[in-house]
Design a protein that fits this description.
By secondary structure, this protein is α/β, with parallel strands linked by helices. The protein has helices at about 1-40, 65-85, 100-105, 110-120, 125, 180-190, 220-225; strands spanning about 45-60, 60, 85-100, 140-145, 155, 160-165, 230-235. Strands 1, 2, 3, 4, 5, 6 and 7 form a seven-stranded mixed β-sheet that branches. Helix 2 (about 65-85) packs across helix 6 (about 180-190).
Length: about 240
């Protein structure tokens, strides 16, 4: 058992080392994208965060739909744009039609998720992540069926380019579960933000719809953290101003 766990850990470390080698090339490619994005969007003031969505399927079909996830993506864009000057660009929404194994559908949270990741139980997610892990690497939101306990979303922080969100968060017909702040909250973790004690803050740990949904505010220092990491492609500022 331990041997297998170690094998998985070594495999994943090897994968990390491989992707580090390609960072220089993919970083340049992303910056190239950035320039074209700018021209297309005419939005030179904002930094850009690329987000991908991966929807898993079980025996009954896809866990949710692209249309159902869209409001949470729009909300994340509105929050990060307003509070941190970062536009969220959705680069892909993919549905994996092949039923996923139970370990991928119903993952565990926090430290146990880290353990599962090292043991290879989240390898399925990696298989479908967009290429590149360097500068401007997208954060992928993996929609899973059920996370153990009362957790509805989880991130491994800067160590992973993906976060998980439970499908019930996107079910607009279920007001007791629907919560469009969780996707943005988990992206916050992926960009290195810790929890915050103010319930009005996006990084407040708990959110209990429909009554006590956390706020969407970010402090200035949080905005700085969001802007100062490898996922966020900096804004191009005019050099005309002194
Ligand atoms: Zn959290």
């Amino acid at each position: 058992m331990i041997g297998r766990a170690l094998g998985g850990a070594v495999r994943n470390l090897a994968a990390t080392a491989r992707s580090a080698v390609t960072d220089v090339v993919t970083g340049a490619a992303y910056l190239g994208d950035l320039v074209t994005d700018r021209v297309a969007d005419r939005d030179p003031g904002d930094a850009v965060l690329r987000v991908a969505v991966l929807i898993l399927s079980d025996q009954d079909g896809p866990l949710t739909s692209e249309a159902a996830v869209l409001p949470s993506l729009t909300k994340a864009d509105a929050i990060l744009r307003q509070q941190a000057g970062i536009g969220v660009r959705t680069v892909s929404v993919r549905t994996v039609r092949e039923p996923a194994p139970v370990t991928a559908l119903d993952p565990r949270a926090n430290q146990k998720l880290l353990l599962d990741d090292m043991m290879g139980r989240t390898d399925l997610y990696r298989r479908y992540l967009p290429a590149g892990s360097g500068v401007g690497a997208p954060v992928t939101v993996v929609v899973v069926r059920d996370i153990a306990g009362r957790t509805t979303g989880c991130s491994l922080g800067m160590t992973a380019d993906w976060v998980i969100c439970q499908r019930s968060l996107f079910d607009a017909d279920n007001p007791n579960a629907y919560d469009d702040t969780v996707l943005a909250h988990e992206i916050g973790h992926a960009l290195n933000l810790p929890h915050h004690s103010d319930p009005q803050n996006l990084m407040f740990p708990t959110s209990s719809p429909p009554g006590a949904v956390r706020g969407t505010e970010l402090r200035r220092w949080q905005a700085l953290v969001l802007n100062a990491n490898r996922h966020t492609i900096p804004a191009i500022r005019s050099s005309a101003r002194p």
